[in-house]
Design goal:
Blueprint: H1 2-5, E1 9-13, H2 21-29, E2 38-43, H3 48-57, E3 61-64, H4 69-82
Parallel strand pairs: 1-2, 2-3
Helix pairs in contact: 2-3
C-alpha cells in the first residue's frame, strides 16, 4: 500500500495480527524511497523495551493510545517542513 500511496507520515500500530508494526517499519526503512517518511509507532503500552525496539526498527517517534492530538499536530507540522 505504501508503494501506491507514498505517504509523508505513517501511524503504525505495533500489534497487528499478521505482521508486526516493527517488521513493517523495518521493511519501509530498508527502502531508500521511504527514508524521508515519518513513521510513528502506535501502541497501548509505553514500556522502555518497546520504545527501544521501535527506535531500532526505524520509527521516528512513539505514541501511546489514545494519541494526544497536540503531539499528532506537531508531527504533522514536521512532515510539512520536510517538503
Amino acid at each position: 500500500m505504501a508503494d501506491e500511496f507514498r505517504p509523508d507520515l505513517v501511524l503504525l500500530d505495533l500489534g497487528m495480527p499478521v505482521i508486526s508494526g516493527f517488521e513493517v517499519a523495518s521493511r519501509l526503512r530498508a527502502r531508500p524511497e521511504f527514508d524521508a517518511v515519518i513513521i510513528i509507532a502506535v501502541s497501548g503500552f509505553g514500556q522502555e523495551d518497546t520504545l527501544k525496539r521501535s527506535r531500532e526498527a526505524g520509527f521516528d517517534d512513539y505514541a501511546v493510545k489514545p494519541i494526544d492530538l497536540d503531539k499528532l499536530n506537531g508531527l504533522m507540522r514536521r512532515t510539512r517542513r520536510r517538503d
